[in-house]
Design goal:
The chain has helices spanning 13-22, 47-79, 88-100. It has 107 residues and is an all-alpha fold. The longest helix is centred in the middle third of the chain and has 33 residues, at 47-79.
Length: 107
């Protein structure tokens, strides 16, 4: 029995030959698509340029640290501006207050 379900080729030989005769089997890739593109070149920086960049960053950091220390010292100076550095003025003020306001003595 010749079952059409199991037939490999449904077309007659003349149609198949005609189809293959008209078409070429060469496949062309699209013009905008590269199948094996070259990798991008790495950006290189010379030693002199890298040293200049590092030096500039170091200089910026030094100025920033100097400004921070200056602001911190100004805050400390403002906080301690009116205070004396020794105990002598407090002792002298205590003696003066005892002279001006003598302690009360019990009767």
């Amino acid at each position: 029995m010749d079952n059409p379900k199991y037939r490999v080729n449904q077309q007659p030989d003349s149609l198949r030959d005609e189809f293959h005769a008209e078409k070429s089997h060469h496949i062309e890739a699209p013009s905008g698509l590269d199948l094996h593109p070259e990798p991008k070149k790495a950006v290189r920086v010379s030693k002199r340029a890298s040293m200049a960049i590092v030096g500039g960053l170091g200089l910026l950091l030094a100025f920033a640290y100097g400004g921070y220390r200056r602001a911190e010292n100004a805050q400390v100076a403002a906080r301690d501006g009116g205070m004396s550095k020794s105990v002598a003025p407090a002792t002298q003020a205590g003696m003066n207050s005892q002279i001006l306001f003598p302690p009360e003595r019990p009767h």
